[in-house]
Amino acid sequence: MSQKEDTIQIGFKVEGMTCSSCSSIVQKKLSSLDGITYANVNIATEKGQVQYDSSKIDIQTIVNAVDNLGYKAILNEERNTQKVTLKVKGMSCTACSGQIEKSLNKMEGIATATVNFAAEKTTIQYDPKKVRLIDIQKKVSALGYELDLDEDEDEAVDQDELKMNKAKKTMVTSSLLTGAIMGLMIIHMFVVPIPGYLPIIAVLGLPIIFGTGWHVHVGSWKALKNKSPNMDVLVTLGSLPPYLIGLLGLFFPIQAFIEMATTIMTFHLIGKYLEARAKGRASQAIKKLLQMGAKTAKIIVDGEEIEIPTKDLQVGDIMVIRPGEKVPTDGIVVDGKGLLDESMATGESMPVKRTKGDEVIGATINKQGLFKVEVTKIGKDTFLSQVIKMMEECQGSKVPIQEFADRITGFFVPAIILITIGTFISFNIFPEFHLGIINWGATFLPWVNPDLTPLTLSFITATAVLVISCPCALGLGTPTALMVGSGMGAENGILIRNGEAIQTFKEVKAIAFDKTGTITKGKPEVTDLVIIEGITENEFLYYAGTIENGSEHPLAHAIVERAKNDKIKLGDVVDFNAIVGMGVIGHIDGERILVGNRKLMIENNVPYEAFEDELIRLEEEAKTAMLLAKGNQLLGIVAVADPIKEDSAEAIRALEAMGIKTAMITGDNKRTAAAIGKKVGISLVIAEVLPDGKVEEIIKLQEQYGTVAMVGDGINDAPALKQSNVGIAIGTGTDIAIEAADVTLVRGELSGIISAIKLSRAIFRKIKQNYFWAWFYNALFIPIAMFGLLHPMLGAAAMAVSSLNVVYNSLRLKKVDISPKYS
How is the chain split among helix, strand and coil, in percent rounded to 5? Predict the structure, then answer.
């Protein structure tokens, strides 16, 4: 087995992470395991991805490694099986549920089936390739019961919603108790002393420090156990010691800090709740895509139309789609025609015409007409699933600028703890120096109290340093911007594979375009026939159409289409041979037929000079002219033109105006290529390039300009797309080879490149802003706290605000205009 076959990629959710230090711990541990070739853990999405060599390590070892760190790894659903919870009607006792369960577990393709009589539900784990839900329904019906194939909505729990509700509950509880403590403190200090004040607030503070805030201390323990202190450690040190010292105040005449401890924890919980809510908004794009799919599909079985769940569809099923209904999954139209709203995939609001033979995308909406569509893709292979996968990969990836921030974050918390200890010691060794600053601060800061003892002031100052520091803001800078940006891109038909492409895209100095299907529509048509005397048009097209019928080239398809449209019956080709960069040769009815360029004619001693003027004329009209010969006699010229896309010239002009050089790489001869280049305004035309020569041309452009992007169809141009600094696949339908490119433009229009550049620049701008504010915040407030001018309660509030600022700044990306209009 090859290395490539041994390498497997899996995704999983990681529970229990609280900040970027946690994700770094998990990532570092996974990367250290023998057999792991790539590991990435993202705090914003709370997901991890690993590539591993299955001959060296198994999934369980990977899961155990995460679990042993104190976190929980939850693998994505097994690829081969699906799990459903369905309602069962007609059961009257436990014997009924037992009978159904026994029968279902005997069915081939069902891994496990359990039936709950009290809830009237069955949960089934099954392989959809071996058994269909309608078969399971028939089995239950044969037993005399009824199985409802509409999946139980109660089971569809939004994990983000659950997490947000849990965070809200802890925040509200903590806020109410802290509010009560603050109220009592104000009365006690400014109105009338409250008998038993300290025991009362100690009791009220207990559920905050050891209840709603318990998970913070657990997170601290995990971080310290893994020798990688994080944000939780700072909050624990800022809340737990003050509370415990406050309890000592019940027995000894010392300053109590219970109010401070509970406020610090509460501000932290408020910040975490608001952060979870904002991150939920940032990840809405994927949720929207998941909700877009149709829940049911109507298919034809034995001549009858039946309705089944979409997840029960199989390749080859014939779906019936009426006006107003969603297309359940990807397929090809086998009957009918009409208009489809494909805005969810392309961002284009105008419906598009689809007829027999056209591909359709799942989750698009039928606006007009009745379609019969054959299913071609299901489950994880569908276009929608691929888009979601690509977005998740992008959101889980890292931008090069982030690597520096991650390294700093790893040392941040230990450094803060050292600064805190240093501040405490300094305050007690040099009290006059610190008291001088505090006395100065007391003249304009109401929370600074110089009357407290040096020991008390040193403790308050050290606590302030702990709680004001915020590594979370640094950790969230990139992931949140990527979450929002990739979602915006998907809504506009721009799919970004990784964060690195975003940073590179903004630095692009030149863009190289493939011609066919990129600048042009990729649907060439025969425009001219120049035929010698004595040969009829039908005879000429018979030879041309028959030999080109064996070719896969788009130009060949145009000639075959013309022959078929003229009702010419094509013959058979013997000894067919396609010669790269020249044309095709074969034998038809015993005659040797050649169709190709001048090189092919020269190689085979066919004189063509008499047609040179016609060739030049056609090439200057941006047409591809091909010579056709029978034996050594030239029969004429067939000219094919590929119409230029409506927006190509405008998009290329806009790119040039942005200071980006444009180049076109094509196999066409220089004259035809120059004519097309002139029409669309391309700066540099590179003609007569063989398919395997595109990579070399990209390298030359990189030597000349530096950072170069390549735009192609994503299939034929894969090597060139990989060689370029940013590979852009452009096309329409479900077969866009998004694996080959860093960026995929679903709509198939060049104007999408303008939007993609604007989006990448906007995302990177937000990332830089986020890092600036995170650094600015820490650089400004940590020294202020060190000099005793910041109360820990205010520090805790500011710490929460700094994280929120980063998240909400990323959300402001949604207001950026990425329309292709250049201004």
Answer: 50, 20, 30
pLDDT at 740 over 70: no
Residues 36, 53: Cα–Cα separation, whole Å: 6
pLDDT at 199: 93
Q: Give the separation between CA 304 and CA 461, rounded to whole angstroms.
A: 78
Query: Cα Rg for the chain, rounded, in angstroms?
Result: 34
Comparing 75-79, 630-634, 691-695, which segment has the lowest mean pLDDT? 75-79
Which residue's entry shows tokens 């802003």? 769
Say if residues 100 and 143 touch (Cβ distance below 8 Å).
yes
Which strands, in side-by-side order, build the sheet including 708-712? 494-496, 743-745, 726-730, 708-712, 510-514, 661-665, 684-686
Determine whether 489 is exposed, middle or buried from the number of CB atoms within 10 Å of its CB (0-12, 13-18, 19+): buried
- pLDDT at position 684 over 90: yes
pLDDT in tens, 453-486: 888 899 999 988 988 887 777 777 777 888 888 8
Annotated active-site residue 514? The verdict is yes
- Tell me the percentage of the chain whose pLDDT exceeds 90: 25
Task: Write b or e for each residue in 398-422: b if 16 or more Cβ atoms lie within 10 A of its Cβ, otherwise e.
Answer: bbebbeebbeebbebbeebbebbee
* 345 within 8 A of 292, measured Cβ to Cβ: no
3-state secondary structure 418-457: HHHHHHHHHHHHCHHHHHHHHHHHHCCCCCCCCCCCHHHH
Q: Where are the alpha helices (DSSP H) in 499-606?
A: 499-505, 537-548, 554-565, 598-603
Mean pLDDT in residue range 670-675:
85
Between 47 and 388, the more confident residue is 47
**What per-residue confidence (pLDDT) applies to 731?**
65
Give the Cα separation of 450 and 436 in Å (integer). 9
- Could you identify the residue written with the tokens 């190709």? 596
DSSP string, 473-490: HHHHHHHHHHHHHHHHHH
Residue at 623: amino acid letter: K
**At 365, phi and psi to the nearest 5?**
-110, 130
Residues 151 and 309: their CA atoms lie apart, in Å, by 8
Do 655 and 646 touch, CB atoms closer than 8 A?
A: no
Q: What are phi and psi of 368, to 5 degrees?
A: -160, 135
Q: From CA 639, how far away is CA 558, in angstroms rounded?
A: 10
Average pLDDT for 679-701: 87
Res 345 pLDDT > 90: no
DSSP 2-65: -HHHHEEEEEEEEES--SHHHHHHHHHHHHHSTTEEEEEEETTTTEEEEEEETTT--HHHHHHH
Q: Residue 73: beta bridge partners?
A: 14
Q: Residue 73: enclosing H or E segment and its boundaries?
A: strand 72-75
Distant-in-sequence contacts of 158-161, Cβ < 8 A, 24+ apart: 158/287, 159/13, 160/276, 160/279, 160/280, 160/283, 160/287, 161/280
Residue 816 Cα to chain centre, angstroms? 19
Note the pLDDT of residue 256. Answer: 79
Per-residue confidence (pLDDT) for residue 155, from 0 to 100: 47
The one catalytic residue among 232, 514, 642, 713: 514
Residue 543: the pLDDT is 93
Condensed to tens digits (0 to 9), the pLDDT of residues 267-305 reads 888 878 877 777 666 566 666 666 677 888 899 988 888
Quick check: pTM over 0.85? Answer: no
- Residue 275 near residue 168, CB atoms below 8 Å: no
